[in-house]
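Reviewers asked in the last cycle whether our approach scales beyond single polypeptides. To address this, we selected a multi-component target totalling 922 residues and predicted its structure end to end. The input consisted of the following lines:
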Amino acid sequence: MFYREAGQFKTSYQADGQIFPIRQDRLALGATLIVAVVALPLLASPYMLSAILIPFLIFALAALGLNILTGYAGQLSLGTAAFMAVGAFASYNFILRVPGIPVLLAFVLGGLCAAMVGIAFGLPSLRIRGFYLAASTLATQFFVVWCLTKIGWLTNYSSSGVITAQKMEILGYAFDTPERKYLLVLFVVAIMALLAKNMVRSNVGRSWMAIRDMDVAAEVIGFRPLRTKLMAFAVSSFYCGVAGALYAFAYLGTVEPEAYNLDLSFRILFMIIIGGVGSILGSFLGSAFIVLLPVFLNILAHGLGLPTSVASNLELMVFGALIIFFLIVEPHGLARLWQIGKEKLRLWPFPH
Amino acid sequence: MQMNEPDALLRATRRIGPVILDLKNISLSFGGVKALTDISFDVRQHEIRAIIGPNGAGKSSMLNVINGVYRPQQGAIIHKGQQRKGMDCYGAAKSGIARTFQNIALFKGMTVLDNIMTGRNLKMKSNFLMQALYWGPARREEIAHRVKAEEIIDFLEIQAIRKTPVGRLPYGLQKRVELGRALAAEPEILLLDEPMAGMNVEEKQDMCRFILDVNDQFGTTIVLIEHDMGVVMDISDRVVVLDYGKKIGDGTPDEVRSNQDVINAYLGTH
Amino acid sequence: MNISFFFEVLIGGLLSGVMYALVAIGFVLIYKASGVFNFAQGAMVFFAALTCVGLMDKFGFSLWLAIPATVVAMIILGLLIERVVLRPLVNQPEITLFMATIGLAFFIEGLAQLMWGSQVHRLELPIEDVPLQFLMDKFNIIVSQFDVTAAMVCGVMVLVLSLVFSRTKVGRALRAVADDHQAALAVGIPLQRIWGILWAVAGMVALVAGLLWGARNGVQFALTFIALKALPVLILGGFTSVPGAIVGGLIIGASEKLAEVYIGPMVGGGIEGWFPYVLALLFLLVRPEGLFGEKIIRRI
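The resulting structure, written as structure tokens, was:
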């Protein structure tokens, strides 16, 4: 009843090409942004901001990166965390060695370093496909993280291998409270999500999807597999690199290789599976799910009086079971469920 | 399937130009299997050239050679006066050759409109950064190509399904979308690999009409593989007959129809 | 350069390679017959070992009672997996099934630890980890009796498996299913029952691997990472070949140890973690389908 498009006609291709063509969607987006930018910093507790909202946004950004590579371009990758690590370490080094560098620029440069590593480790994708490619991304994951632990220059020769991330400051304004960190992260993630959405709707995105769906036909049309795949690796790694830098600076407070392990790569992969492979919205939904689930399970275990070891094992089991559940019931993840929900909403309150 | 008199007359008045594609002594083998042996024929501009023959004769391989998917071990391709031993896919696409596939090769994850837009790929100039910002030139370009894609959608009468994911479409419509994707590149030479396979009579008539219209309105040269002899004899200007990778006939439909070798190998007493 | 030390490292590596091969064979079995890359194989190894040890520790079973009991448990697990995970996903693309097995791996790991606790368990097998006397005396090389026994067990298992595959009716059915699901269904092969059997067999292979690995390193969560090590083995050996898995395992095991010992000190150590993967990656660049794998020909 409320969610109808009746009367909303598009009279130009430009209008038809909007990201949110339905007016109600635009209103909803506006409301969400107001809540996110104004209400949450004022009303949410520091715990909520630091432990839930900030990691949600950061992981969503990483999931976006992985979605571009795996969801849109079809190159399965288990090395996400390695690219995040490169971004974090590179940003740290830029801030350390280039005095006065703006922190956002440092993040962008960190992302670019990650992109270059991504291109290097993406070269095998021209010969290798499918599981074999996934296995070779494991090489990326283990080798890159090993390098970061061994090369002393990168960690500024710290004896413990754990370095404190610098404070984030823009023009003297320090981002050190949870509210400020949250707003900074929100800003970065929102812009990058918009850029990603634009990319996947344009020729770049189509080139990725073409290579994913039918690479021979894509070649015949004139898409170049080399360029397309490397582009996917580069953009994806850039996103993961920035996410990794934010992970270190705005969440962990330290820059350590162990934080970027295989487990993290799997978590991000789960996010895009549950959230919806090949969907921008899905990256956010998946991230929210994976971030909130342990919290719920902990509350549940606490409420039932179970020890924490049980809770963590339950977490593994529930994760695993949910992955299987989603793959069986809705392989396109929460994003598709969301779409179906909207379809039903159009008819509400009528059944059909 | 018989066509009416007026269409046959139309075919007779088509302005056929000089030789645009010349294949000389093409031989192709995979390991020990010889797919094509010493094949030579030419294609003239604006004509409709059919390639026929029994299954396994090497017809698809022939198209794949023209298109750059396979490189022949021997022989040369002379395209618009330029000689090449073999083309690569990108080169073929850039020089104005587009094709459809025997087992539909659409991008199943995308909508009809997106599939057709992929055909515009080579004409898009903006780089990915501008596309990410969706600003100015990138936006104008995207809209301009959308206009072109919509023209093709109108031409093929598939407006109603433009936002449908192609995986959900019935077979006949998928073949039409694939034709649209090939047309989107505004090709000079269009290679069609069994465009009417698996279609019923109405669908075949529609497809025939589209092929003829493409040739007539856009002047596109068409090389097509087809098994329906009625269609072949009625719409093509010249026919090449392949059997076991060798050429056994080459000429107008009437000449080929009365060629004894072709009758023995393929047509039977008709 | 001590030549006998080199041989010691080499043989040690080869034997640890045999253990990798054991796990890899489980992968190959399942992939061959159902096209599913079972990421959960490592978790199954862990589960099998943990169940066996758990039965012995918590319920006082003797080893010879615990093993058959675990076999039963693995068979049940295999049948459940087929029923709950595979059957609903039967026509999905390979990548979906692969991701489902990742979820399965997490589930089994959580379940195993929930049932039996997450501390490290010791597993005692009646084979001693002492050097073989005659080798030590004659050539001054230290090779553990345990490792050699493991190699022999592996050999026996491969022999049994290949006999089953080629001589028995079930084996023939498995090979048919591996080739073409539809055709197998068409000739009346009960696909689901075969897959149930398949996963049960893979479970038993996992048990053997679990016992041997567990006795060597202790039964602990790190056992699941062996599954990851099996990946380079499979890349080298091809995903569909049991002899390939063995050859791949030997190569990975040997090269990993040799690299760690000889190259490791030059770059600060810890090479073992990535060397097999990088090796596999380089190998793939040259031969994208592995040593023994089937070349994939795509028709356009």
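Chain B has two domains: 1-96+187-270, 109-184. We regard this as preliminary and will revisit it once experimental data from Aim 1 are available.
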